[in-house]
Amino acid sequence: MLLAGSLAALLGMSASCTQTNHTEAQRTQTSPIEAMPTDSRPTEAASFLGEPLRRPELSPEKLARLTSDLNSATTNAANDPSSVEAAVWVGRRLSYLGRYREAVDWYTLAISRLGNSAYLLRHRGHRFITLRQLDRACLDLAQAQQLARSLPEHVEPDGIPSPGGPRTTLQGNIDYHLALAFFLQGECAGAKNGSLDAAAAAAAWRQTVDRANNDDSRVAAIYWLAITEFERGHAAAAMQALQRVHANMEILENRTYHQLCLAFKGDLAADSLVPKDGPLGLGVDRATLGFGLAMHARHIAMNEPLAMKRLIETSQLPEWASFGVIASEAVLKGNDGASALSTTAIKLPRLDSNQ
């Protein structure tokens, strides 16, 4: 069991504590940590296409490990109630358990206690993207961006340590997630309709590319910039952005983004990236690859039926918190995707997290 009393002390809250910048996001007056259902998978959100998105089912071993991590983070936050970093880690640990709504509530309560913080707003904004609440994501991330301007560049620790060590910064992550939120809003509205969000996304991705301080960060931002320009109908601008990607970049983490960029340039055969057993066919990489190959089919191969097939397949993957799934939903919505899902002749099984 988690330390409910310690959490209440951390937040300095009572049942009447309701002051928050996003009061509509605070659904209960009890600590979100105390509200964990243990016997079911609740619906965390709805997709852009109206499908319920349920909390992922975890293996007993993974659930025990992540719960232990959350308990440790909770203890740390209770022991240091003035620490923004400790509060951030409780929200991150909740998110790794798939408890995204609780993470948002936790960040909201932490902000009400500790004040606006670039760190807290950056992570709440990210989880608003996960929950498909793009307006709230943009508000949080834009405010975080303003607050972060006065801070020194800060490397963000990885939740799951990687061999190359942390590769991203607070400022870079804020830029990245704000650009993504603009992109998703533009896609939901139909990117080729001259959406202001699509134009804002392109500008934000360029800023993210310029801020990148390593090839992993750079290639991820270039990938999304190219996709944004393709979707806006600016193919020449997309290809110009891709010219900065080459085979000899130092890529430690974002291998799938790197390979997709090379495929867009024609330096790598897209057919060689078809999902299969192995690293390219598993987990979040599967969603990243599915969306990327859909965009390749649409903008490079000029095969719209194949693009739609891959978008639909990717939108149904169980990794619904991944950006590839979220982007697939947004593109489908902007292309009357709800109708496509109901009328397409492509017969696809409905994937679920427990399969």
How much beta, percentage-wise?
A: under 5%
Biggest beta sheet summary: 2 strands, antiparallel
- The low-confidence runs, each spanning 5 or more residues with pLDDT under 50, are 1-32, 34-39, 277-281, 342-355
User: Which radius of gyration do the C-alpha atoms yield?
Assistant: 20 Å
Number of helices: 15
Beta strand count: 2
Order of helices and strands: HEEHHHHHHHHHHHHHH
User: Alpha-carbon distance between the termini?
Assistant: 28 Å
Secondary-structure content class: mainly alpha
Silhouette? globular
- What does the average pLDDT come to? 84
Strand order in the sheet with the most strands: 1-2
Task: Explain briefly what this protein structure is.
The chain is mostly helical and 355 residues long.
Task: Describe the structure in your own words.
The protein contains 15 helices and two strands. It is an all-alpha fold and 355 residues long. It has a two-stranded antiparallel sheet with strand order 1-2. Helix 7 runs antiparallel to helix 8, helix 8 runs antiparallel to helix 9 and helix 13 packs across helix 14. It is globular, with a radius of gyration of 20 Å.
Give a quick set of tags describing it.
355 residues, mainly alpha, 2 strands, globular, disordered N terminus
